[in-house]
Hints:
Blueprint: H1 2-12, H2 18-22, H3 39-55, E1 56-59, E2 62-65, H4 66-74, H5 82-104, H6 110-118, H7 127-148, H8 150-155, H9 187-209, H10 221-236, H11 246-261, H12 264-267, H13 276-296, H14 300-339, E3 342-344, H15 364-378, E4 380-382
Antiparallel strand pairs: 1-2, 3-4
Helix pairs in contact: 3-5, 3-7, 4-5, 5-10, 6-7, 6-13, 7-11, 9-10, 9-13, 11-13
Amino acid sequence: MLLIGSQLQTLFGLRLSKIDCCKYSVPDIKMRPRFCIPLMVRAAFAEFVGTYVLVVKIIQMKVIGNGSVAQAQLTHGQKGDYFAINWGWALGCMLGILVSANVSGGHLNPAVTLALAITRKFQWKKLPIYWFAQYLGALAASGTVLGVYYEAIMEGRVNGEFRIQKNAADPGTAAIFANYPAPYSSSGLCLVEEILATMIFMLVICATTDKRYSKVPAFLQPFYIGFALLAMGLSYGANSGYALNPARDLGPRITSYFGGWGSGVFSFRDYNGFWIFIAGPHIGAILGVCIFELLLKLRPSDKTDLMKVEHEQQIQRKEQEQLEIELSNVKAIREEYHASPMVELPRVGILWYQHPIDDRQSSDLPLISTTFQAGLNSGKIPH
Length: 383
């Protein structure tokens, strides 16, 4: 066994514990440094995979993320509706964070990464790497959706093509990939809606992940954030389709540009639409994290005050418990008296001692005192 261990060490650079080998247990195998992938590379890959899962994840013919939009539009709502689209994004968010959180933090959103960097919760030197991974993941995911639904998209062509026509009010199947303002919505309204929705979403993220603020367990945080995304979609998605994430919109928009929809994906409404879903999330995320850091986040002094309040509440609880114990003792004495027989004893004087009890039990004392007095008068007292 030792010979095998030495040969493995020579060939592969593995370090085997001699004691473990002699006991025929699992060897302590450690790889050489050249086989170890740097943490920054792993974090970037985690952001890529997490963003990919956020945008599209195909499991048993069910598409999450952008695929929910494709499923709803290409089947005219028969295999998906607006509610299903929102659930697709919420579940995609949960799964994406679960996949990447332990390695990269599970940002999956360039706006979130920028907001955390501004508040010094994230290193600026890592920002370009995270952004590149996030946008690349969105591109790969939207390409997957295009491949999965390519035949259905071909069936949706109008006059042999599916390009967005000039001055068109409806982007058509291009809305599978990116967000476009509704015909009745102005660009200013869509921008305000995007900022407001992203700000609220960022507030929920900060409150959920701050250990001193909400104390949400780490394994539950993806679900809280996913349900927050679901709430934003149900509340703010009618005017332009909520983006909340620049990578989620720009990456698939580029895919649709090269996929055959042409420059109309950018020139829709005379180039007065696509920038909303890039600028809005960044502004909203920065506002959200600043509001939390300045107004909501607990400070050390706040923590001290909270500890004092908790200590006082703990003392009050102990006093209440002691009071309940004394009350139960009084009730036990009463029950024991009623259950005890009366015996003949000589007349003796008894000094009644009144134990200080809460006012609520003062009604019990006259009964006991009267009973003892009657026992003395008749020569009978409780056994």
